[in-house]
Amino acid sequence: THPSGVMHCSASAVPTMFAMAHSRGKSGREALGAYLMAIEAGTRVAKTARAGVHRAGFHTTPIMGTFGCALLAGKLADLSTEQLAEAQGLALA
Fold first, then answer.
1. Which of 10, 41, 55, 59 is the most core-located residue (most Cβ within 10 A)?
2. CA-to-CA distance for 4 and 77, rounded, in angstroms?
3. What is the pLDDT of residue 34?
4. In whole angstroms, how far apart are CA 92 and each of 1, 19, 64, 68, 70?
5. Going by C-beta distance under 8 Å and a sequence separation of 6 or more, which residues neighbour residue 18?
6. Which residues contact 78 (CB under 8 A, 6 or more apart)?
7. DSSP letter assigned to residue 47
8. How far apart are CA 35 and CA 18, in angstroms?
9. Global pTM value
10. Which of 63, 75, 84 lies closest to 36, judged by CA?
11. Minimal CA–CA distance to 10: which of 57, 58, 61, 60?
């Protein structure tokens, strides 16, 4: 749990990492790197929301986890930087 973002980061990132790494034949090092990127992105987005998501009646883990998982999946799918940015836009939509 990330305390300042009030988010359970691994709940969405771990299954995404295993599924993508396995389906793409990625190494453990590649999977771990993508996982860490997802955790960093998800917690930063959650931290900026500062419990506002909870006050609105939602939970940060599935909402903010989407941003991290989009990067994680994209990284393991060898997307370009521009495509990863577009994935963030799709996560926002």
1. 41
2. 30
3. 97
4. 22, 22, 9, 11, 10
5. 31
6. 24
7. H
8. 9
9. 0.87
10. 75
11. 61
For tokens 């305390």, what's the residue?
A: 3
Query: What does the block give as tokens for 22?
Result: 């396995």
Residue 22's Cβ-count burial label (10 Å; 0-12, 13-18, 19+) is exposed
Residue 1: pLDDT band by 50, 70, 90 thresholds?
A: low
Contact 60, 53 (CB under 8 A): yes
Q: Which amino acid is at 76?
A: L
Task: Answer whether 53's CB lies under 8 Å from 43's CB.
Answer: no
Residue 42 region by backbone torsions, left for phi larger than 0, else alpha for psi between -120 and 50, else beta = alpha
